[in-house]
Amino acid sequence: NAIYEIVTKSISSILKSIFEKKKIESIYEKCEVDSLNFDLPCKDELSGLLNKKSLLNYGEKIIGLGKNLNKKGLVVYCNINNMKLINNDFGSSYADNAIKGAATVLQNCFRSNDIIGRYKDDKFVVICAGLNDFTFERIREQINSECKKWVEDNNSLFVLSMSVGITQFDNETESNSLEKLIQEASLNAKK
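Structure (tokenized):
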């Protein structure tokens, strides 16, 4: 009986994981279809990530899915440090490179099923279903490491670094609360 229970729980967990990943992948596929059907594209032209509208739209769906599956997750807020100085000292093309670099760093640091988007200007948001706040330090360290690697690989004249903050969502999180979660994560980034 105990073995049967362990096996059924394992199978159930695997199926939920597959279902969750398929749902997230279908959101990305829908984004591609949406960009063909509507005037507003799903992706930010400069970063290649989801734009704010798509980030909020699909992020809410991920949070709702997490609630339905009784899963926790993280909202990660990232802000490029010293962006005004980069723009003033080196020019707008370097500021654009900083945004592209930050997008590359985030894509290298997060899973393929995480929702990554440019929230506005030099600010980015990542929705990570299934992660908890215990992974935060690892995420921050990985972002710092990838920023240093990007600077070296691109022989950058400026230092790329990001302030990172998180907040957690779970089945208690209110519907349509992604903006509040982003605000909370941004305040945590300033600490």
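Residues 17 and 161 are 33 Å apart (CA to CA). The chain has six helices and four strands.
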